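> example.struct
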């Protein structure tokens, strides 16, 4: 059997699992083996995904499973994504259980995150439909490493996505992710061109690997051409982890420099992450430059948008998805028990 979910296209004998370790050949099919089992449920601020233009200030129920279809040496969730057994899957819950728990907790959305939901797409898709039945939005946090034939079905029930663009070189993807850049760029361009999914993109800048001025210029140039000036881009700070512990953390000055490069390239909404930087984490009007959403880490401050999402100073509409009033979840992170049968 050949798995057609991601560009690895693993060839599997009956009973054999793929690179991701959660998709297995059984008879004449490839099935996911972690359906209904999760690696934790937490209520997070939506800005933590990160999504800064998708119902700002609201709360989102986040969960994942185990395994991953990339092999990133710098993975910051390696204890989940690299798990080869189900010892990390401490919770059992069906899609309706999850949607019901999110609604009862007052969440605005449900996020499929922590490890890449592409490899547990059936579980994510079913949960997305259950969430929509209760009026909740859905979010995919993914590396975008998915085949053309799988992506339409996976993203069809998603309202928003944050895609990790790990770097802008094949060398980086090959050396540090054991993957390829091309399919990720294809996914990004397709999401922007062919879907109504709200899209934001994150790049983790690693000193000496993908943070040069030349590479950032190449990245933001492609970004402006294919994703447009209003698609938010997040530059995130690296900290040593997993198998990449010899690199120093990303200096805040590097994040600030990359942000300025992107702004000079014409991008309107560029953010810094994993550092305390109110200026780099706040949102500014693309028309007059007024700060329309102030952020201190994940907490909102001054909010200068109309209920329709227009700048109160010049009337320019901010790209994104907005409720009449911003959420007030703040910085809290709440572990949420989800019990099987709760959504029956």
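> example.seq
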């Amino acid at each position: 059997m050949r798995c057609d979910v991601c560009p690895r296209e693993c060839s599997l004998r009956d009973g054999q699992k793929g690179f991701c370790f959660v998709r297995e050949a059984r008879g004449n099919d490839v099935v996911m083996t972690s359906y209904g089992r999760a690696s934790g449920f937490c209520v997070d601020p939506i800005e933590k995904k990160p999504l800064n233009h998708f119902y700002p200030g609201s709360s989102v129920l986040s969960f994942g499973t185990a395994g991953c279809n990339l092999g990133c040496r710098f993975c910051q969730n390696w204890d989940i994504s690299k798990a080869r057994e189900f010892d990390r899957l401490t919770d059992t819950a069906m899609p309706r259980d999850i949607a019901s728990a999110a609604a009862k907790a007052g969440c605005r959305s449900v996020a499929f995150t922590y490890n890449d939901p592409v490899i547990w797409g059936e579980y994510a898709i079913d949960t997305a439909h259950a969430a929509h039945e209760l009026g909740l939005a859905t979010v995919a946090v993914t590396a975008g490493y998915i085949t053309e034939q799988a992506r339409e079905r996976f993203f069809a029930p998603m309202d928003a996505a944050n895609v990790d663009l790990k770097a802008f070189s094949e060398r980086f993807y090959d050396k540090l992710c054991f993957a390829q850049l091309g399919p990720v760029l294809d996914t990004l361009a397709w999401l922007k061109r062919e879907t109504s999914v709200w899209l934001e993109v994150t790049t983790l800048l690693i000193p000496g690997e993908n943070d040069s001025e030349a590479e950032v210029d190449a990245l933001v140039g492609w970004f402006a051409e294919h994703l447009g000036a209003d698609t938010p881009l997040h530059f995130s700070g690296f900290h040593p982890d997993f198998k990449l512990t010899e690199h120093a953390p990303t200096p805040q000055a590097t994040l600030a420099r990359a942000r300025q490069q992107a702004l000079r390239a014409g991008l309107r909404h560029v953010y810094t992450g994993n550092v305390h930087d109110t200026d780099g984490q706040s949102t500014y009007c693309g028309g007059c430059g007024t700060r329309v959403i102030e952020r201190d880490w994940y907490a909102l401050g001054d909010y200068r948008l109309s209920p329709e999402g227009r700048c109160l100073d010049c009337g320019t509409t901010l790209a994104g998805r907005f409720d009449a009033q911003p959420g007030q979840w703040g910085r809290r992170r709440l572990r949420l028990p989800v019990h099987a049968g709760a959504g029956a």
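> remarks
The longest helix spans residues 213-226.
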